[in-house]
Design a protein that fits this description.
512 residues, FAD/NAD(P)-binding domain, D-Amino Acid Oxidase, Chain A, domain 2, ten-stranded mixed beta sheet, binds flavin-adenine dinucleotide
């Protein structure tokens, strides 16, 4: 059935549903090519799977075992492309892979790492080497039976900030971004789609029109097809939960560990923020609302036991300061085990020439930019071409400096604002890169940055997050724009929430 279009509603070339990494990456690429773009996110940007990842920009060493050479090669090439785009929120990291009898044989690991070093045209990241754990500092915290290890390169990313930076750049290039606004219906009209969007806070419904929809709903991709677009049979993704534990810093060097478990699964122990170690992930089929995924008792035991097989000093439940779980929306290719389902993305265009919807199934954070390029090729087929691909040599907001210049940027920032503590300065440069001057600029003392909420978070930073980064409540600031939530007290959180509410009310009054 076709509906008439409301002549007053705005017509976008492309309307993206879902403000995770894939939706925001597509919106940025499309807006930069000259399409008119809208994006709606039902909660906060990055509040879905994209902020619950293991935070690796990686080829995925273990996918070689499943012969996923295309995926691994594309992801390996992307590591350095993304590192150059965002040298503040992405950093190179060395991974130590201890080996011993009973696990994958050394020749297999050596072969895998040889391919890993050579498949992706590596220029910046150093290659693999062998470590003697008896003398190397990384061996100090490991049990004595581990005497040798391989050390290889990958990168680590602040996943939630990667999402927001893509959204900011999309906005700077003309895209309109609606947060806390849910797509509730999509109906065909005579020349495209009429979409109804509902604001979470007020319940108000807004209508917009679009020539094409991009369904970037992550784990909700089928729900969007079923509930908003009326495709009752949609069942394209397999939901697989992965959980992590965060413990106090387990080792004092900057490298990460790649551990193999006796069930042949692998997991990581990664330096996290400044004071913690992140351990994960698990893999198990999931049913229910993806937003409600939480770590189970058996996952906690699995991760503690697995890590204790490697660390001299066992990891216990008492060490855990935080846990988080995410749900992977893997394309359902009918395989039986959760860890064997493909991590590759699948794009599918549905509908007719005048009203199509392009659905995104699966994918990794690492390949979001390539996914956006592949999707834009389908957009061109559907509604005609605009600009050429442009993101490969671009910079994300705040990342307009060379990868090797990070230390320079940090020391210059520290010299410009000598009143910032070293850890606070490093946090700000890692999170905002050159954009930190937007809210630090001109300050001569900590007092100049306004109220201090704790852990170095000041009113100037919070105002910047509200005005520039769509932050709306303490969760957005403490768990996505930063991870300060791990050490904020209840009282500090309430104070921050009150401040944000009052500030936003004042802004709204001023705008009326
Ligand atoms: P999401 O981030 O979930 O975004 C979808 C968004 O759509 C959500 O924010 C949701 O609120 C919104 N939405 C849904 N319905 C509606 C609606 N009706 N209206 C408006 N908005 C709506 N990848 C890597 O590269 N490296 C890793 O280390 C890594 N580790 C991982 C570890 C775990 C445990 C998991 C689960 C995944 C990991 N991944 C990793 C994969 C990666 O996180 C995901 O592939 C990616 O985040 C998916 O992004 P997305 O944008 O498709 O989905």
């Amino acid at each position: 059935m076709s509906y008439g279009r409301n002549p007053l509603s705005k017509v976008y070339d492309i309307f993206v549903v879902g403000g995770g990494i894939n939706g925001c990456g597509v919106a940025r690429d499309a807006a930069g090519r000259g399409y008119s773009v809208g994006l709606t996110e039902m909660n906060d940007l990055g509040s879905g799977t994209s902020s619950w990842s293991t935070k690796l920009i990686h080829g995925g060493l273990r996918y070689l075992e499943h012969y996923k050479f295309r995926l691994v090669r594309e992801a390996l090439i992307e590591r350095e492309v993304l590192l150059k785009m965002a040298p503040h929120i992405i950093r190179p990291m060395r991974f130590v892979l201890p080996y011993h009898k009973g696990m994958r044989p050394a020749w297999l690991l050596r072969l895998g790492l040889f391919l890993y070093d050579h498949l992706g045209g590596r220029k910046i990241l150093p290659g693999t080497k062998v470590l003697d754990l008896a003398s190397d500092p990384t061996g100090k915290v490991l049990r004595d039976e581990f005497t040798r290890a391989f050390e290889y390169s990958d990168c680590c990313v602040n996943d939630a900030r990667l999402v927001v930076l893509n959204a900011m750049d999309a906005r700077d290039k003309g895209a309109e971004i609606f947060t806390r606004t849910k797509l509730i219906s999509a109906r065909k009209n005579e020349d495209g789609w009429t979409l109804q969007l509902q604001a979470a806070e007020t319940g108000k419904i807004r209508e917009v029109s679009a020539r094409l929809i991009v369904n970037a709903g992550g784990p909700w991709v089928d729900e969007i097809l079923r509930e908003a677009a009326g495709d009752n049979r949609a069942a394209n993704v397999r939901l697989v939960q992965g959980s992590h534990i965060v413990i106090r810093r387990k080792f004092d060097h900057p490298k990460a560990y790649f551990f193999q478990n006796s069930d042949e699964r692998i997991f990581f122990a990664i330096p996290y923020e400044q004071d913690y170690t992140l351990i994960g992930t698990t893999d198990r089929d999931f049913e229910g609302d993806p937003a409600s995924a939480t770590i189970s008792e058996s996952e906690i035991s699995y991760l503690c036991d697995g890590a204790s097989q490697y660390f001299k000093d066992p990891v216990t439940r008492d060490d855990i300061v935080w846990t988080f779980s995410g749900v992977r929306p893997l394309y359902d290719d009918g395989v039986s085990k959760a860890q064997e389902a493909t991590r590759d993305y699948v794009l599918r265009a549905d509908g007719d020439k005048d009203a199509s919807v392009i659905n995104i199934f699966g994918g990794k954070i690492t390949t979001y930019r390539r996914l956006a390029e592949a999707l834009l090729a389908k957009v061109e087929d559907a509604i005609g071409p605009k600009g050429a691909p442009w993101t490969a040599n671009s910079a994300l907001p705040g990342g307009e400096f060379d990868v090797g210049d990070y230390d320079n940027v940090l020391s210059k920032t520290s010299a410009s604002y000598p009143f910032l503590e070293a850890g606070q300065c490093e946090r700000l440069v890692r999170a905002y890169g050159l954009r930190c001057h937007d809210f630090l600029g001109g300050a001569k003392s900590l007092q100049d940055l306004g109220e201090h909420f704790g852990q170095g978070l000041t009113a100037s930073e919070v105002q910047y997050l509200i005005n520039e980064e769509w932050a709306w409540c303490s969760d957005d600031v403490l768990w996505r724009r930063s991870k300060l939530g791990i050490c904020f007290t209840q009282e500090q959180t309430e104070r921050l929430d009150n401040y944000m509410r009052e500030y936003i009310q004042l802004q709204n009054l001023a705008a009326e």
